[in-house]
Amino acid sequence: MRYHVATIAADQRTGPARLGDRVFSATALAAGIAILLALAGVFVFLAIEGVPGLAKPAEFYGDATSFWGYVAPLLFGTVLAAVIALIVAVPLAWGIALVVSHYAPKSIATPIAYVIDLLAAVPSVVFGLWGISVLARQLQPGYVWLDENMGWLPFFAGPASGTGRTILTAGLVLAIMILPIITAISREVFSQTPRLHEEAALALGATRWEMIRMAVFPYARSGMVSAVMLGLGRALGETMAVAMVLSAGGGISLNLISSSNPASIASNIASNYKEGTPGKIQVLIATGLVLFLVTFLVNFAARWVVTRNERKLTR
Amino acid sequence: MSVTTAPARPTSEPVAFTQARLPRLAPVLVGVVAVAAAALPVLLLDWGLVAWALVAGLVHLVALPAWARVVEGPRGAADRMVTGLVWAACLVAIVPLVSLLYTVVDRGMAAISSTFLTYSMYRTDLDQEVGIYHALVGTLLITLGAAVISVPIGIMAAIYLIEYGKGSRLARWITFLVDVMTGIPSIVAGLFAFSLFILLFGPATRLGIGGSVALSLLMIPVVVRSTEEMLRLVPADLREASYALGVPKWRTIVKVVLPTALGGIVTGVTLAIARVVGETAPLLLIAGLTTRTNFNLFSERMTTLPVLIYTQNANPGIAETPGGTPPGIAIAWGGALVLILIVMMLNLVARIIGAIFAPKTGH
Question: Which ipTM value was assigned to this complex?
Answer without folding.
Answer: 0.85
